[in-house]
Description:
With about 300 residues, the chain is of the alpha/beta class.
Amino acid sequence: MKKSCISVIIPIYNMSVWLDRCIQSIIHQTYKNLEILLINDGSTDNSKDICERYQKLDSRVILYNKENGGLSDARNFGIEQSKGEYLAFVDSDDWVEEDFFQKLIDHLEGEGADIACVGFDYIYDNKREVPAQPMKTIKMNQKQCMRQLCRNKWFTSYVWNKLYRRRVFGKIRFPFGENYEDIAIMHELIMRANYIVCSDEILYHYFMRPESIVHVKSAKNEMDNFRAYLKRLRAVDEWRWKRNVLKCCAGAAFQILFLSENQFEETEYEEVLCFWKSNAAAIRFLGIKYGLMYTFPGIYKKCLCGGN
């Protein structure tokens, strides 16, 4: 019986220092039926040369060179070019364990699920951090998974530690030119899935580069984060989901209105302020923390910043 093909989409922009580690971890997978799409997003270093070398070494590797359009655009391009029954995403500075795809597809097909995910860790230059994980392998229906996603604890919005049946994506695409693109679409993907299975086994290694886009504090990042959660808030319908997403929106809004040192466009600031004022009653009743955050923002800021 022929094994299902997994299309692995790897966006690449100036990642020559880490690219070998990433690609090596993919081509040496125990699950062999892979379509490995290297999307060179206008790199100006020697990333293209590295990709060409692997394309010659392994027939499963397909290189696409395109003008720079950002991470979302590169991922979307990869989806359009892919042919596999399943879709997966790996960032080009990360790497995975050799049984990453075998475990994912075993969970997905064994449980009749539409999305499978595994545990991950954060790797810094001099330390390793393991975030919260599920206590054991768990199968969830759509509503159960949405509850966990909106709680924003161990089930995260990251797209890269998961495997998806192609139909789950359908016409869903990452928002062009925006950071925190995972947050903007993960709830949509779950809403198209019947079952989601998650394992606590740590098989994906996320490299925390200090210069990566989402780790840099900027007005764009802060606005993209706020808008991504606001999009989710408008999409969910059950109050218990909305309540948790509202916490994320309120936290992002407070950062922009009271903590940020970045300069925002007047229209951006007004957009956040409008949300802050129009959701006053709901934010106040999210709990003591949020009541203090909204009613006495100055005091909350001092508590948050240690009195500075």
